[in-house]
Design a protein that fits this description.
Elements: E1 16-20, H1 26-33, E2 37-42, H2 45-61, E3 69-74, E4 87-93, H3 102-112, E5 113-124, H4 126-135, H5 152-161, E6 165-172, H6 176-186, H7 194-209, H8 212-225, E7 228-234, H9 240-248
Parallel strand pairs: 1-2, 1-4, 2-3, 4-5
Antiparallel strand pairs: 5-7, 6-7
Helix pairs in contact: 4-6, 6-7
Length: about 250
């Protein structure tokens, strides 16, 4: 299940991609399939081990084009172990709402992104997320949980302050908001509640089969109750004079 829409966020074979806070690796795997040189980075060592295993399995199965590469590594989003201007593309999906110093993370992403490079940021959408917080304290008051809810203008403003130029937004996963509302209402750790189990089966069916009915329903629901807000931006090239001054330092 991808949150980033690659029709709005073009990726070319050979692009160097950083999937920051990659989690289980869903976006990293898609970039690898598209022929990119992918680095999947996360602070969770267990998840990184699993991502590395999947990269190896994909290579063995021939799921990635010749020339594509994939690396999974532990790392700190606030101190990325890469030189300036290392990547053509940076993706950070459902991560920034967890990090106290989100401005610091944005600064690091901009640092390692090449001028002219592209970045995709996804966070929980304000409205659906507010419902979750209202229904359940346990949903967000956990170690490593969500510490803020972004309004769209707030996130775009922080991206601009970091030196990025946003060029597009959309909402995603309209079918998933009701599932999380049910989880919050019945208990975030209570997977046995009948409404939660029934809705989960629907989501699994949708992900596996992609039937027309649910695809149409989600497209209709995304603008209304899409669970995620997605923003795309570029890192502008420095004006020639500024670039020369920077190079002379």
């Amino acid at each position: 299940m991808l949150t980033v829409d690659f029709t709005r966020f073009p990726l070319a074979a050979g692009d160097r991609v950083l999937d920051l806070g990659c989690g289980a690796g869903r976006h990293a795997f898609e970039c690898y399939r598209r022929g990119a040189h992918v680095v999947a980075l996360d602070q969770n060592a267990e998840e990184i081990r699993e991502v590395a295993k999947w990269f190896a399995a994909m290579k063995e199965a021939g799921e990635a084009p010749a020339g594509a590469t994939a690396t999974a590594m532990e790392g700190d989003a606030l101190a990325l172990p890469f030189p300036d201007d290392s990547f053509d593309v940076v993706i950070i999906s459902e991560v920034m709402e967890h990090i106290p110093d989100d401005k610091g993370v944005l600064a690091e992403m901009v640092r390692v992104l090449k001028p002219g490079g592209r970045i995709a940021v996804t966070v929980p959408r304000y409205g659906p997320e507010k419902v979750c917080w209202a229904l359940s304290d346990a949903y967000h008051e956990v170690e490593g949980g969500h510490i803020r809810i972004y309004k769209a203008d707030e996130l775009l403003g922080r991206m601009r302050e970091a030196g990025l130029k946003p060029y597009g937004t959309h909402h995603a996963h309209g079918l998933h908001s009701p599932y999380w509302w049910l989880k919050c209402a019945f208990g975030v750790d209570n997977d046995k509640a009948l409404p939660v189990r029934a809705y989960h089966k629907l989501l699994v069916w949708d992900i596996m089969k992609k039937p027309l009915a649910t695809r149409v329903a989600e497209r209709a629901l995304d603008p209304l109750i899409g669970k995620s807000f997605v923003a795309y931006a570029t890192k502008p090239h420095l004006p020639k004079a500024a670039a020369q001054a920077e190079a002379a330092k």
